[in-house]
Amino acid sequence: MKPPAFTYHRPRSLEDTLDVLGSLGERGKVLAGGQSLVPLMSMRLSAPEEIVDVNHVPGLGGVVVETGVVRLGALARHSEVEHDEAAFAAIPLLRQALRHVAHPTIRNRGTTVGSLVHADPAAEMPAVLMLLDGFVTLRSAAGTRDVAAADFFTGPMESATRAGELAVSATFRRPPAGSGSSFVEVARRQGDYAVCGVGAVVSGDRVLVALVSVGDGPVLIDLSATYDGSVLDHDAARDLVDASIDPEGDIHASADYRRHLAHVLVARAVAEARTVAA
Amino acid sequence: MSQVDAPVPVSFTVNGAPYSLDLPARRLLSDALRHDLRLTGTHVGCEHGVCGACTVLVDGAPMRSCLLFAVSLDGAAITTTEGCRDPDGGMGPVQQAFHECHALQCGFCTPGFVTTVTAYLRDHPDPTAEDAREAISGNLCRCTGYVNIVAAVQRAAELLAPQDQP
Lengths: 278, 166
Prior knowledge:
Shape of chain B: globular
Largest sheet of chain B: 5 strands, mixed
Structural class of chain A: alpha+beta
Strand content of chain B: 15-25%
Order of helices and strands of chain A: EHEHEEEHHHHHHEEHEEEEEEEHH
Number of strands of chain A: 14
Oligomer: heterodimer
Number of helices of chain B: 5
Distance between the termini of chain B: 61 Å
Order of helices and strands of chain B: EEHEEEHHHH
Number of strands of chain B: 5
Strand order of the largest sheet of chain B: 2-1-5-3-4
Largest interface: A-B, 34 and 34 residues
Mean pLDDT of chain A: 96
Number of helices of chain A: 11
Distance between the termini of chain A: 51 Å
Structural class of chain B: alpha+beta
Strand content of chain A: 25-35%
Mean pLDDT of chain B: 95
Helix content of chain B: 25-40%
Largest sheet of chain A: 5 strands, antiparallel
């Protein structure tokens, strides 16, 4: 399994990167961590003509904790975010979810922003961006725009990133003080894709969950109406979940089993998040 | 910058030795190590990031060499299982522990374990059996059943521990 041939670009500045992406248009594909792109190419499921390698562009990395937000640069590796103590203190959910992203070895190279742009419906970090009402900052030679999580994930493996644009950072909003969070999932093998996964944030009497692998993208559900501040009405929550998800069956799990997991994992995630909430 | 499949210059070190190569951009690091540099210690199993046999250290961190384009590693320091030997050429502590604990049978997966465990013990010098199991969860072995590999991780930790004063 060898990747198909392509033309390689190794820009050394952001300006050069945006210039080359702009000139390539639809033919250009950004390479950051490559932990999804390279296997897709090796399996010949993807064959970009031109690859723009951003790994040598200064200024694209970094985990920045500011008032109310954590901002990840395009080259912040999953493992760097996972082990960043300031980011964990600000938003524990980042580490809670990242521990489910593939294996540590993959997390050493893969980038969080890259996994957002890749928009795999089984991926954890798009669900986290949705839960935390985050946004992705896209830059092109023409300018910069921020796209809210709710508008960013447009379908399976589809994001709002346009030809010529580079996702330069992702910003996650810190939940209110006293919030609790958790991320739980079931996979066939450790480190494998989630058969179903659920992230939860509980803030006072507000309960948000986001589910992976049960729809075209991360599915955000507001369960606050089923929560009185101490007890979740499980039947009502289950009805809300059922109305929001659209699981498919495949070789790994039937649609019914995924639906069952969604019910069980939502209850588990909310219970876990509540135990850490103040 | 270059035409399709035209060689791209790249420089990196492997086990401390500097290399400057001209490689097709699509050359995977695993193939660059084995075919271009003739360092056949790194094994290629699944070639899509699942099995872990091809794991090498890039700037000290374990990564799948089959999921990296060699040309993307300009300036990197790469360590393969050959680089996990003792400076005198004998077996390094992790390799010695695998030998002592019979942590390999066919040996195909071993290079990926040696690199992964070498990096893991640097950050976690005294792992429990449970920790060791978690540390190797990204590497597949079809022979051993993992029990002896877990023992080897802990044995390697002993070998690496600073010796007590006599």
